[in-house]
């Protein structure tokens, strides 16, 4: 166990920024702290670094409680959102800063900096000053600077937020490669769920200071623990159903009641890929009109409008779309193959209870 | 001819004008007024100081400057400045640091207090210290019993000067420190630097132009302060006369040349300060520009 947080909370006056968070990070893992702004993820990162002290709870690094250990003593590398490069020093001096503080020999410093410059593709830039570098170069210098003293943990606070989208993609891939090579335990904060899904081994999802779920990208996508996670990761159609005569309804859509009594409500969610569409109006149970298609490269996102006016987001490949002879405005039939129960009468279900259900086949359906 | 000529004239006019500019006449009229004002009220009197100082020739000028009492005044001014400026440097940096980096109760009170010397009349400031440290003052008996002289002695002059020049460094540094933010310092901490190391290697270099600017202003004011020093010094010739006080005394003794000679030194100081100030402002602006710059992404091979 490389890093552990046990029941950690942080209050800023009246405001609870972090509420009773328990996480264990494995040695060598690449973990993402994900969530909307203000969720508490940066505060958690800073508590691991020692830049904030928890109000309650313990922070442990390699089994040792570090709450009382100063920032300098924790041997962590931190990369800030806006790089925080020392603007009065050139690239060499920036990267060498931590080594100089630790009183390394001059020759050793030069060797280590040269090694990092090569590894990070920054050769020839050692004499330049931060203002003479591009955004991507600055970020790499910031990471090189953090890694120079060989810390046991690398912490990054929204490292790619200030960079152009194209560069962000390249830096993301580069970070994964770097992590592979160096194998340093790495934790990074992001509000971009695509980034978290692409890059990390595990994701920790925060919302308003609460830990919503910890899991691999696949787990949080396919088995979201609650409605917040379900809506935050990927696209999710969420329906609020009312139970009547032992089944749950929303206009023309019908679902099993899952034990909810008549008169109460039930929320379910399903992913776009779970919707099956056919141009043959007899193929499936429900009718809709294909309103919009959005071109996403490989797939098409398709928006269906039901007679009641309800909009459902679905997905299909270009080939399937062409094969079915579909166009905007076509009438289609559809059904929902798989769905998840998110909550009953407002109460959130624990992960073990909420599960993915396959829609029971109606009489006559054979596909 | 008429139509052609008119359209040509219009074209010529629109070439030299942007949409939001006043007509050239208004522009030049305003510039002229400003220049004339500067000339009459600032430049001519300044030149006159030098003219008057040299009116009896270089020899008389030199003799006025090497007069023993004048030399004592110059020495005293330099001494007082050499003590006040470093003191205010330390106070100013500490105050700016506290205000820019921390949140604490009484912060706005501190900021107001920092500005106090600017709003108080220098004479009132001097009187304040007389009331505190003078023989009839609050601490008067206590000091007299220990044979410590503050008022009508050098310590009083130093205290008064420190008070008057206190805001310069702090006021210059606070906005610069606030603009730089704390991320660079936090970065230094994560790399293992102690508070002191962070201060020396990261904080100070990032505010160096603002700091120098504050020191220059502080220095100029320390050397030129009249009102407060006049009240606390007692005007004892050769002992508690600073350069500005010496100028006054010489003038009152109808020694105009002497007075202008010493005044010319102060005027030279003013010009030097102005030159350095301009240089530092330029350096600060260039630093700021650079902070906003980003180089373009390099081509990928």
How would you concisely characterize the structure shown here?
In chain A, 25% of the residues lie in helices and 35% in strands. Chain A is of the alpha+beta class and 367 residues long.
Characterize the structure shown:
The complex is a heterodimer of chains A (367) and B (301). Chain A has 2 domains: 3-229, P-loop containing nucleotide triphosphate hydrolases (Rossmann fold, 3-Layer(aba) Sandwich), CATH 3.40.50.300; 271-358, Beta Barrel (OB fold (Dihydrolipoamide Acetyltransferase, E2P)), CATH 2.40.50.140. Chain A contains 9 helices and 22 strands. In chain A, strands 11, 12, 13, 14, 20, 21 and 22 form a 7-stranded antiparallel β-sheet that branches. Chain A has a 6-stranded mixed β-sheet with strand order 6-7-8-3-9-10, sandwiched between helices. A 5-stranded antiparallel β-sheet of chain A has the order 15-19-16-17-18, with helices on one face. The two termini of chain A are 48 Å apart. Chain A is an alpha+beta fold and 367 residues long. Chain B is mostly helical and 301 residues long. Chain B folds into 2 domains: 25-54; 57-290, MetI-like (MetI-like fold, Orthogonal Bundle). Chain B is built from 14 helices and no strands. Chain B has helices at residues 2-16, 24-53, 57-66, 68-101, 107-119, 122-133, 140-145, 154-180, 183-190, 195-206, 208-224, 227-233, 243-252, 256-292. In chain B, helix 6 (122-133) runs parallel beside helix 12, helix 11 runs antiparallel to helix 14 (256-292) and helix 13 packs antiparallel against helix 14. Chain B starts with a helix and ends in a 9-residue tail after the last helix. The A-B interface holds A 49, 51, 71-72, 76-78, 80, 82, 84-88, 97-98, 101-102, 129, 131-137, 145-146, 149, 164, 167 and B 183-184, 186-194, 197, 201-202, 205-206, 208, 290-291, 293-298.
């Amino acid at each position: 166990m490389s890093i552990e947080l046990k029941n950690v909370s942080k209050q800023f006056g009246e405001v609870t920024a972090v509420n009773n968070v328990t996480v264990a990070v494995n040695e060598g893992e690449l973990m993402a702290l994900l969530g909307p702004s203000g969720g508490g993820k940066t505060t958690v990162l800073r508590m691991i670094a020692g830049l904030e002290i928890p109000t309650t709870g313990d922070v442990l690094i390699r089994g040792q409680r570090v709450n009382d250990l100063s920032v300098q003593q924790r041997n962590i590398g931190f990369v800030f959102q806006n790089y925080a490069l020392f603007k009065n020093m050139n690239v060499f001096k920036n990267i060498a800063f931590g080594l100089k503080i630790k009183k390394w020999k001059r020759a050793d410093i030069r060797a280590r900096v040269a090694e990092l410059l090569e590894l990070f593709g920054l050769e020839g830039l050692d004499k330049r000053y931060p203002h003479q570098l591009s955004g991507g170069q600055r970020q790499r210098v910031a990471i090189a600077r953090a890694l120079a003293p060989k810390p046991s943990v690398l912490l990054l606070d929204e490292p790619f937020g200030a960079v152009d989208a194209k560069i962000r993609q390249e830096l993301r891939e580069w970070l994964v490669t770097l992590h592979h090579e160096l194998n340093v335990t790495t934790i990074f904060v992001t509000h971009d769920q695509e980034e978290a899904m692409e890059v990390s081994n595990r994701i920790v999802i925060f919302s308003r200071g609460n830990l919503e779920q910890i899991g691999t990208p696949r787990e949080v996508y396919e088995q979201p623990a609650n409605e917040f996670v379900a809506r935050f990761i990927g696209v999710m159609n969420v329906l609020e159903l009312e139970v009547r005569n032992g089944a749950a309804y929303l206009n023309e859509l019908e679902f099993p009641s899952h034990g909810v009594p008549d008169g109460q409500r039930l929320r379910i969610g399903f992913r776009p890929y779970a919707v099956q569409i056919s141009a043959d109006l007899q193929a499936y149970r429900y009718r809709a009109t294909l309103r919009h298609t959005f071109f996403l490269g490989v797939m098409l996102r398709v928006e269906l409008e039901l007679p009641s006016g309800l909009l459902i987001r679905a997905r299909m490949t270009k080939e399937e779309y062409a094969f079915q002879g579909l166009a905007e405005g076509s009438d289609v039939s559809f059904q929902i193959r798989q769905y998840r129960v998110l909550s009953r009468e407002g109460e959130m279900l624990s992960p073990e209870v909420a599960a993915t259900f396959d829609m029971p086949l109606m009489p006559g359906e054979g596909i | 001819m008429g139509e052609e000529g008119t359209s040509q004239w219009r074209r010529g006019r629109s070439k030299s004008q942007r949409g939001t500019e006043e007509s050239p006449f208004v522009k030049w009229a305003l510039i002229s007024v400003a220049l004339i004002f500067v000339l009459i009220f600032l430049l001519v009197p300044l030149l006159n100081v030098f003219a008057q100082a040299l009116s009896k020739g270089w020899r008389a000028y030199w003799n006025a400057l090497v007069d023993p009492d004048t030399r004592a005044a110059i020495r005293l001014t330099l001494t007082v400045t050499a003590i006040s400026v470093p003191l205010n440097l330390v106070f100013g940096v500490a105050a700016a640091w506290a205000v820019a980096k921390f949140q604490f109760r009484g912060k706005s009170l501190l900021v107001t207090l920092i500005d106090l010397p600017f709003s108080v009349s220098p004479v009132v400031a001097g009187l304040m210290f007389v009331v505190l440290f003078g023989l009839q003052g609050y601490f008067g008996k206590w000091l007299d019993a220990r044979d410590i002289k503050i008022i009508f002695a050098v310590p009083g002059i130093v205290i008064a000067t420190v008070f008057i020049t206190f805001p310069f460094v702090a006021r210059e540094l606070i906005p610069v420190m606030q603009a730089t933010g704390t991320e660079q310092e936090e970065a230094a901490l994560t790399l293992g630097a102690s508070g002191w190391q962070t201060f020396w290697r990261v904080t100070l270099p990032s505010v160096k132009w603002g700091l120098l600017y504050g020191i220059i202003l502080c220095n100029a004011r320390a050397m030129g302060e009249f009102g407060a020093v006049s009240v606390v010094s007692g005007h004892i010739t050769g002992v508690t006369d600073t350069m500005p006080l010496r100028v006054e005394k010489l003038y009152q003794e109808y020694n105009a040349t002497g007075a202008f000679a010493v005044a010319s030194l102060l005027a030279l100081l003013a010009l030097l300060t102005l030159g350095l100030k301009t240089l530092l402002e330029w350096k600060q602006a260039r630093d700021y520009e650079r902070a906003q710059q980003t180089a373009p992404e390099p081509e990928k091979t």
